[in-house]
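QA checklist item 7 of 12: single-chain prediction sanity check.
[x] sequence parsed
[x] length recorded as 116
[x] structure emitted
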Amino acid sequence: QVHLVESGGGLVQPGGSLRLSCAASGNIFSIAVMGWFRQAPGKQRELVAAITNGGRTNYADSVKGRFTISRDNAKMTVFLQMNSLKPEDTAAYYCNAGPELSAGSWGQGTQVTVSS
């Protein structure tokens, strides 16, 4: 129903910044919330940040004050501005979009590696 394409991942030094993008297409009218999850090797996938169509946001405690999620509703694109990156932020980041979080469609993921 919904197709998601993430971009913006890469290798960055601790303290650096990256901006992830997720573009949605297809049945975009079914989207009420978009969010970013991440999964490190051997660990459970966890919610990083989410934003509703109305602009309500939620963040994981580990990224509060460092990450900012935003959304272009007209283009159905969600962004994740990641500042003050830490090695523990290293993970594959996945976009999700649908009527509710995690139950929607998933993107293919984009790798974020924070290392010196």
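[x] summary fact logged: The CA atoms of residues 71 and 78 lie 4 Å apart.
[ ] second reviewer sign-off
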